[in-house]
Batch of 2 targets.
Target 1
Amino acid sequence: MADTATTASAAAASAANASSDAPPFQLGKPRFQQTSFYGRFRHFLDIIDPRTLFVTERRLREAVQLLEDYKHGTLRPGVTNEQLWSAQKIKQAILHPDTNEKIFMPFRMSGYIPFGTPIVVGLLLPNQTLASTVFWQWLNQSHNACVNYANRNATKPSPVSKFIQGYLGAVISAVSIAVGLNVLVQKANKFTPATRLLIQRFVPFPAVASANICNVVLMRYGELEEGIDVLDSDGNLVGSSKIAARHALLETALTRVVLPMPILVLPPIVMSMLEKTSLLQARPRLLLPVQSLVCLAAFGLALPLAISLFPQMSEIETSQLEPEIAQATSSRTVVYNKGL
């Protein structure tokens, strides 16, 4: 009965959208094709759109109700595909898909850039003291851990100790590497003060990249021990694969290394050139605002590019997996959820 109602609702929406440029709406499905990099890039641009941070409580309720009406076949006439896609975008940006509870604004994916940019600016401040280095690395990893926890897969109970373990590992590795590299640079007498300052600006990247890898491995180590679910082309569960889990963690770790690269490497290069301009030399007070804009631009470009590298539902040939997995299906390939 519910399937018939949904079909009728979909038919009504399709008729109302004959002249619309938006693709036919599919409840719970991405608007853009995920088989191409461009499609994934467009999809993640929607996910991180900061405009959803300003959605009112009333607009959220309307969006949720519109999707419920579509699901139960009670959609009012004249609703367009564009309105349905917009409603789904709002719901997915604000509510956790498993708990259906609102995600705290700074920890939403749409809040990652606006709330994370001040931290990036702090990481890249010149002439940092030991205390400021520790503070900004700690704040960065704390923000990352909160975002990871707020957007976690909550379908299965996961002990909080796993997240604490990942958090502590990330903080310790980030702080240790950043402080260690800063000490080495300070003791390198062959560098001129200008060269030393430039090198110090690149210190946050290896610290953050290594901490990100540490965070992924520690928080998802259980997947390597137990495996992750792999599905056939029809969405049927084939089994649990440790090899697929290794692929998933490798792809996620690579993404976490690529992500901070433009954010923490490009701004120092750009700022080292801008600081030589007569405008900034005559107005040193503009240095911080300009650096903030440069970091914001780099962050806004890097985030969707990095998370678009691999499909969230990745494909792997069954011949590469455990023999029992290959024997359990006739499909040449299976898919698994890589995670973000």
Note: The CA atoms of residues 316 and 333 lie 5 Å apart.
Target 2
Amino acid sequence: MPVNASRRSALKTLALLGSAGAASLLLPGCWKKEEEGAARAAAAPAVVKSAGDPVVAFKYPDNPAFDLIYLAESLGYFEGTRARPKYVGKIAAPQIIPLVGTGEIDFGMRMVPLVISAIASGLDLKVVSAGGKTLEEAPHMKYFVRKDSAIRTPKDLEGKTIGFNSFGACAEFVTKTYLRQHGVDVNRINWLVVPDNQSEQTLATGNIDLAIIHPPHSGGAEHNPALLRLWSDYDLDRGLGGMAPYSAHGQFIREHPEATRDVVEAIARAANWVNANPEGARRITAQRIGMDLKNVERYAYVENLVISEPPIQYYIDILENEGKIPRGKVKVKDVYTNEFNPFAGLPA
């Protein structure tokens, strides 16, 4: 999608603001032991840049999220590498992948179907790293209703309003697939886009009937006595649709392959650390985005962030069945590469 000059100017301004705020993310001394433990949690050493190698500042959203870029920076995993995040302010979830595809930002974390659709439309991007994995105790997204609601089964949702964070991603396609499997006419549901950090309140005030919420913000709904969790995506598809990978702009990859490798390695190390230190990850996230720790929920991550093909094929099949992309236009190999992941090919 074309981006006009005013958009570029705004992003440059936000980038300056984001870099000015980066210094505020330094962790207090009490994190030192966790940082040392983090280094041991990763299975491969960091890549140290050679003398004279340029450090590449990659453009990235500064969103209130549980995110490996932020965690890797907090843990010091970009130190000694050829890459540094340059935050460009908050970017609405539906805009992240289109902006990666046009190069307005260099990396973005969003669901596979958005990347597939972007590639089908001719945008220049590639999945370079796996992301979250759904566990029963750490799902990718949760489904909430009000306790005083009569909604308890999929069929009860006909005629109701579902709030979710964007069209074209997991919340839409995983949910519609599940509802159809249970005989629900999804065309009789009103689908309303509501950001994750607003969904709990929107549901509690009765403006939607069901909210689909991702971590860390799903924790607030879990602790809200007026709300009830019905399902998680683990209940719907055992997590097949729950991988939220990291994608990069094609030109950035081609011009900065070593920096791309350093970004992928840094977030893979951070992912391994999160899996080994879930409470520490929650604390860092709570501090960073100003949330009450008890409400911060975390993700689990694919080991070493090595990409596998089934989650990608899952969404290619869905998009073809939904008529969103022509059959055969996008192949699995068009969507991803493990070329920049130093853990690929190593024992898990």
Note: Confidence is low (pLDDT under 50) at residues 1-48.
